[in-house]
Amino acid sequence: MDLERISQTLLKWVNLNVKSSNTNGDKPSVSYIVNNIISFSTARDIMIDMEGVDVLRLSYIIYFISEGDDFKTAQNKSNNLYMFDFISVEDIKYTEEECEECYGDGTIECSWCDGDGEEDCTECDNTTTSDEGDEEECDECNGKESVECSNCSGDGNVECSNCDGEGRVESEEEMVSIDENKWVFNSPILAKKLQNEIENNYRTDSSIYAILDDFKNQVYYLGYTNSEETLNDLENNLDITDITTNDVILRGIRKLSSSEPNISLSNFGDSYTLKSY
Ligand SMILES: [Zn+2]
Ligand SMILES: [Zn+2]
Ligand SMILES: [Zn+2]
């Protein structure tokens, strides 16, 4: 089956579902179309062998045909998709690393007794001799000539003062946990608005959602990828200073390339999803 016939057939399927699920005549959004066709087992069998980016394009073709375009126009538009991404800063913290002094044990060898747990008995320095001329046992050590080490109470180890016995210390480096959110859309007007936002207000919060919401039918959320890096690296990479938790940093817009290896159709149990990884 060629792409045009696949598109028409799937649009019929989608429209059937739209009719049964909403009564106010709304046209299906791209998200609705994606989720609808990948949950349709016959269609999914065709799409499972397609690249993720092509499943996305097919969904846009169906969307534009549904909006009134002919197949050729819809296909052209689907070849001009934009990818927009922004970073949301989830968490900044000092990470812990193993204590260098105790190698993570939390204790170190007692330096008074070198780990023996015993120290020389100070009372035995001169063996006392009784009146009868016999050597008498030292009261302090009962003749052993050593006593329990008073520094480690006989344990041989003492708490590591570098980590207070925790075995771990905070590292010098601050680590940032970030979500990289990816969105796809077609509208050149939206592209311009986002570009404008990036240039004037690249550290934003809710305004970006308001802009995307105006185009919600044709905006497809590809999900997010979470990663961690040092605050230093992130600030250098983005050329920004003073990044804090909950910052939203707009990255950029680019044309979606014809081979986006990170987009794929995957299943989680019974349900399928088209996401970016
Ligand atoms: Zn330690
Ligand atoms: Zn003694
Ligand atoms: Zn000791």
SSE topology:
Blueprint lengths: L2 H19 L8 H9 L2 H7 L4 H15 L4 H8 L3 E17 L8 E3 L8 E3 L25 E3 L8 E3 L8 E18 L2 H13 L2 E2 L2 H7 L6 E11 H8 L9 E8 L7 E6 L2 E6 L1
Antiparallel strand pairs: 1-6, 1-9, 2-5, 3-4, 6-8, 7-9, 10-11
Helix pairs in contact: 1-2, 1-4, 2-4, 4-5
The chain binds zinc ion (ZN) (3 copies).
One zinc ion (ZN) binds next to loops.
Describe this structure in words.
The protein folds into 2 domains: 1-81 and 257-277, no CATH class; 82-93 and 175-255, no CATH class. A 5-stranded antiparallel sheet has the order 7-9-1-6-8. It has a two-stranded antiparallel sheet with strand order 2-5. α1 (3-21) crosses α2 and α2 (30-38) packs across α4 (52-66). Helix content is 31%, strand content 29%. The protein is built from 8 helices and 11 strands. It starts with a helix and ends with a strand. The longest helix has 19 residues, at 3-21. The relative contact order is 0.17. With 277 residues, the protein is α+β, with helices and mostly antiparallel strands. One zinc ion (ZN) is lined by residues 121, 123-124, 138, 140-141, 145.
Structure in a nutshell:
This protein has 277 residues and is α+β, with helices and mostly antiparallel strands.
Strand content: 25-35%
Could you say how many structural domains there are in total? 2
Structural class: alpha+beta
The whole-number mean of residue pLDDT values reads 87
Q: Element order, helices and strands?
A: HHHHHEEEEEEHEHEHEEE
Estimate the global geometry from the Cα principal axes.
elongated
Keywords:
five-stranded antiparallel beta sheet, 2 domains, 277 residues, alpha+beta, binds zinc ion
